[in-house]
Amino acid sequence: MIGYLKRSTITVLLLLLFIYIVIGGSGMSAQARLFTLAVGWIGIVIVGVQLIRELILQRNENQLVASGHSATESEEESPGGNVDFAVTDEEKTAYGRMAAIEQFGWLWGMIASLWLLGFYITVPAMMWLYLRRHGESWRLTLLMTSGIWLAVWGLFHELLYLPFPEGYLFSLLGG
Amino acid sequence: MFDAALQGLMGILQWKAFAMMMIGIVISSTLVAMPGVGSKTAIALLLPFAFVLEKYEAIALIVSVWAVSNTANSITAILFSVPGGGGSQATIMDGYPMAKNGEAARALGAAFTASAIGGVLGALALLAAIPMVRPLVLLLGPPEFFMLVMMGVVMVGALAGKTPLKGIAIGVLGFAISLIGIQSQTGTPRYTFDILYLFDGIGLVPLTIGLFAIPELISLAARGKTISNVDLGDLSAGRLQGIKDAFKNWWLVVRCSMVGVWVGIIPGLGSSVADWFAYGHALQTCKGASKTFGKGDVRGVIAVDAATNAKEGGALIPTLAFGIPGSSTLALIFGGLLVVGVTPGKEILTTQLDVTFSIIWLLIISSILTSVLCLMFTKQLAMATMLRPTVLVPVVLAMAVLGSFAHSNRLEDVAVMAIFGVLGYFLRLGNWPRPPLLLGVVLGPLAERFMWTSYQIYGYGFLVRPGVLIIAAILVVSLAYPMWQKRQAERAQKAELAAGGES
User: In this structure, what are the phi and psi dihedrals at residue A114, rounded to the nearest 5 degrees?
Assistant: First the structure.
């Protein structure tokens, strides 16, 4: 069961998404519906076939394991090769997974902080905290934090006139 | 045509456009020289800034960032046996042994020179293709263009990953994402859930940054150590010898450049195929190659680098002429051109011919300048690989956030970037290729427009028009033939093994 889940979670989610697209597109006007339904139905067919393939592959692997053989993930390979970066061995380790969770933590924490405190504080603060968290020297931390603050203020605000929104906290205090 | 060529050249020689090209070359070379960042991430991070520029300046920035990527990729491949991108995998075969033999500078000199010549030849191939392609493009109607768009997505999807079905499904997911927002012709909101932000659809820039930069950033963080643990050594000596080697093997450079152009024209094959095709060609045709290749033969480096850079000129032929970007990187370039008001397809070969020529000029000038700069600053570029991930990651993260926000000055774009970051990570983890998704998002609106126009003119009969059927047949053959060839090779291999076992 875990094997099926591991292999096919994304496939099932995609299938549900394409079904939703078809249901949602059915009530639209003819012009808006034509391409929507084409995309939805093509998606359902392709992902459906892929799901069946995965289920068969998993069943075969389960049978191999049950008969005492070692299972190998065999999938039909495309002759074009892999143009996407493959997952590295480091990423598959427990350390790699923890590193991924930590990076997502930084990313989503940064978004929350951007909303709450704004860009001028969040971006340099993230730089400072990240470098200190990973044991970089005070000197480098100070240098890079100043550099990123200068980039945010000098390049993005002064030169490119990016209208950075005020943090929610400050708008509350100001209001 | 001559006037357009001159106008295109003048456009990019304006000081601002030229400065943008130089900025693009320097930043892209530095970013691409770091494995894990890659050309897609470099383009995605720089693209938002092109949107605030004038037409020629924006084109100069966008094209130069892309044009230099293959050249800079060779640095890490040769010095540390780490491919900077898809196209530099075969460079390792002879480049790294050369570095181990103390000939790193010679390998780099040869690679950069071959890359420059390949880039120029690729651009010339594009130039030669324009008079041939123009009448063909003018012959095609909406049904054929619709089919060509579908062919681009299907081919990239089928050839991008390990399983063709997964790639195609992700391409269709890209189409699905392009549905989000107000339908441009009817004003119907689709899948917007009454969220105002979604009325404009999902932004290409935050999507790309999320999809590509965030998973690479995670990969960098997971490494936990510097990209290189090898000493850089002396990179000054031997460069001249490498340059001489490239010129001495000029016929090999020309042949492999043509291999690159041919691979580039076919959507979906990309750099990772061009380099191996060229390497294989050199292995078969160079004298004594079977004994020296893989052990540090400079011809192995020259062949690969000429082909991977020449490929870009070839890849631009279907992109500019038919609006079919053959890779996700080109889809980004395509999206960037659309945003600055340049529409690939008929327009760029008729009313905006000067833009086509400016792109050709940029390819030529960028290829030469990049090689010169890389030769001059090889050591400094290589030092980028000595950076610790703990220093690199927060910089890329800050750039990702700022770049996403700069797209349309909305905090929601940063959230979209983060959401696609999560999606990109899980797709990568599940071996679902990401490039077709980008292609689907970029080509979705075009496909919809062509499909509706075709339907209005011909009804569902547009699907059986001769042009459509011919393109469909080409698509089927292009997909089936390599698979059939692979099966045949596998069968032959099995038969050989069985025969060996019996004897």
Answer: -60, -40
CA nearest to B310, candidates B243, B363, B370, B248:
B363
Q: Is residue B429 less than 8 Å (CB to CB) from chain A?
A: yes
Q: Tell me: pLDDT of B34 over 80.
A: no
Interchain CB distance below 8 Å, A160 and B52: yes
Claim: this prediction has a pTM higher than 0.95: no
| Cβ contacts of A81 on chain B, cutoff 8 Å | 159, 272-273, 276
Cα–Cα–Cα angle for B192, B197, B200, rounded to 5 degrees: 75
* Nearest beta carbon to residue B402 from set A79, A88, A156: A156
Chain B residue with CA closest to A86: the answer is: B428
Render pLDDT for A47-67 as a digit per residue (tens, 0 to 9).
Answer: 999 999 999 988 888 888 887
Give every CB contact of residue B29 below 8 A, 6+ residues apart in sequence.
B68, B71, B72, B370, B373, B374, B381
Contact check, Cβ <8 Å, A82/B448? no
Say yes or no to pLDDT of B81 above 70: no
In chain A, residues with a C-beta closer than 8 Å to the C-beta of B328 are 83
Q: What is the pLDDT of residues B416-475, one digit of tens each?
A: 999 999 999 999 888 888 878 888 888 888 889 889 999 999 999 999 999 899 989 988
| Rounded distance between C-alpha atoms, residue B353 and residue B317, angstroms | 13
Is the per-residue pLDDT at A30 higher than 50?
Answer: yes
ipTM over 0.85: yes
Chain A neighbors of B401, CB-CB under 8 A? 110-111, 114, 123
Cβ-contact B306, B263 below 8 angstroms: no
Among B421, B432, B362, B403, smallest CA distance to B161 is for B432
